[in-house]
Specification:
The chain is mainly alpha-helical and 343 residues long. Helices cover 72% and strands 2% of the residues. The chain has a domain of 205 residues. The strands form 2 sheets. It has a two-stranded antiparallel sheet. Strands 2-3 form a two-stranded antiparallel ribbon. The relative contact order is 0.17.
Length: 343
Amino acid sequence: MTDTKVPAAHVTAPPKRAFWSGDAAEPFRRNLGLVGVLIILVIIGIITRPELYGDASWVSGNIWTILKQASAIGVVTVGMTFVIIGGGIDLSVGAIVAVAGVWSTTLATQSYGTLGMIFTAVLVGVVVGLINGILISYGRLVPFIATLAMMVAARGLAAQISGKQTQVSSNLTINNIASNEILGIPVLVIILALVVAAGWVLLNRTTFGRRTVAIGGNVEAARLAGINVRLHTVLLYALSGLCCGIAAIMLTSQATSAQAAMANLYELDAIAAAIIGGTLLSGGRGTIVGALFGVLVFSTITNLFAINNLSTEVQNMVKGGIIVAAVLVQQFRYQSLTNLLKR
């Protein structure tokens, strides 16, 4: 009995899926959608305040203003994105920024000069992040509870150190970071760009990034694959603390001071920006570029509310609605994908 071969002319190759409809294009589609949101926000600004948007010099200055406002929270969001991709959450980022900023502006710390202030802020941020990671990994506390407790404790420590007073920074080098420019680009924006670039490389081009995605996707499978999940989780929260320490210096420069109430609700903004940018709240997937676009969307909304003299309360309600909508969209997409795989 001989095998019957089908002529090559009659063999049909499986249809190729277009790049636009493939899973690989999901980050691109989401980022393009966020760009569309930014364009819509600009159009709203033009409609509501045409006299301002008609001035080219004002528009140029306002763009830099938005980017400078987004710089500190953008740095914090990079760290938050790593934590969420790794399957965790960090509610203490705002408090870490506060305690790092207050500690770096004490009279004793300022006496050590610029490097002393920067080193202190970064060190405090990393140490607090390490404590979070140790409590979660080795103390087996739920991330929500551990970081919620740290949020309260760090705010209290910041108030204790500062005596509930605003601490003025007398270091001109630190203070001038917010006003200095390099080749016409604000230093704050350059710092944000460098942190985002470093975060992108770390997530997409290193073993650390691949392990972060693996742990967030399936922690048990990651453990069986030989990944030290506990140590890696500690490092993720230390990374988040590092970003908070950098942001503390940036905020101190902008206000030329630090206080226990600084970076209020930063945890809300960072989580929201990461989710808007496509990071799954359940972990295992996310992008640094998407998180940056999420930050820019919220900073543009804040700017839009400011130029239209709208209250902060209304702004917070809008942000809350956006977060709920983003989570609902994620849940719908996840359920749709699950149902597709079951077929």
